[in-house]
Amino acid sequence: MADYIGKGHRLVMENRETLALTGIKKVQSFDPKEIILETELGVLSIKGEQLGIKQLNLEESMVDIEGFVSALIYHRGTGGGSRQGLMHKIFR
Predict the structure, then answer these.
(1) pTM for the full model?
(2) For site-directed labelling of 57, which of 23, 39, 40, 77 has its Cα 20 to 30 A away?
(3) Which domain of life is it from (predicted)?
């Protein structure tokens, strides 16, 4: 998986129960109902039930997640996430 570092983002989901992702920069937050990741292509929210991080290796830019996945949502922008963007718009 190390060959994906800096080369983009890949997501493989099996039966809505496991996810293998590459191109991960940072885990912004996680709990059993939502995991928020900063990826090479922006912020990704994974929503579901009984979500957990099975394996995390930021040196290789990868994460494996298990649980029941109900939604995958990519947010606009990259890096700082939508909160930073909203504050920037308000106080411009």
Answers:
(1) 0.76
(2) 77
(3) Bacteria
